[in-house]
Structure formats: C-alpha cells, structure tokens
Amino acid sequence: MTLSGSYPFEVSGDGVMSRARNRHELSLPGPRTLRMRAPEYALDRRVEVNAKPGETVRLSAPALGRLTVRTTFETCQIFLGGVALGYPPLADRPVASGTYRLTLRCPDGDHQTQTVTIPAGASYMALIQ
Question: What are the tens digits of pLDDT across the range 49-69?
C-alpha cells in the first residue's frame, strides 16, 4: 500500500504505523481502518482499506485549500474538525480540503458552529457574527 500527499502526514492504525512524511509504503494484512493525521493542516481522516493479498493500493491525502475566518468574537478560539487553529482573525491558513465543523469556543462557554467546505487549491472565507 502506498499513501502519499503534498505535505507530511502520519499514518496510524493500532498505534502510529508511520511517522509524518509525504510518502508511506506499508504492507498490511486484511481489511484495516487507518488514520491520516497532520494537525497543522487540520487533517484527521479515517480510511478503510480492503486490499486483497498481492493487490497494490494507492491512496492520497487530500490536497490543501486555504481558510480565512473573520469574526467579531476575537477572544474565542477557532476549531476546525476538532483541531485548534488559534484565535481570530485567521488569514489564509492552509488546511486539508474537505467538509468540516468550524467552531468558535468562547471563554464564557458560548460557542458558534457552522459547516464549511474547504475546496482543494482554493480559498474559503467564513464570516461569523
């Protein structure tokens, strides 16, 4: 099995199987569920692998897109798919493309949530008021 991407990511199953790098070569017995992780790009994806013996499987990490978050809630922390990205404003941050839950968690316990889709090779701007 080959997993590759344009940025370093880790592969795990029952523990870390391969540390962060752009390309991974693995031999796995039977069907498996793997995770591709790169917190700096908000990547945390499960991948089902159902390879037959001797079959070559090639998988790719999602391409990067860019996320900008504008909000009046400047003391609230930004989470994308459960990964903390910091505090607003967030400008043109590279993230793995895909659909996520974007959450602002505020110190007073309030939070704002919306679903966002980050396109591969393009930018997305979220405005939260």
Answer: 887 777 788 999 999 999 999
Q: Are residues 54 and 69 in the same domain?
A: no
Average pLDDT on 88-114 reads 95
Pairing state between β 111-118 and 98-105 = antiparallel
Indicate if 123 and 76 belong to the same structural domain: yes
In the predicted structure, residue 76 carries a pLDDT above the cut 80 = yes
Altogether, the residues listed in the chain come to a count of 129
State residue 23's pLDDT score.
96
**Rounded distance between C-alpha atoms, residue 9 and residue 21, angstroms:** 5
Same domain, 44 and 80: no
Residues 90 and 122 in one domain: yes
The string of DSSP letters for 34-63 reads EEEEEGGGTEEEEEEE-PPTT---EEEPPP
Mean pLDDT taken over the chain: 92
Which residues form the domain of 11?
2-60
Alpha-carbon dihedral angle through residues 70, 66, 62, 114, given to the nearest 10 degrees = 10
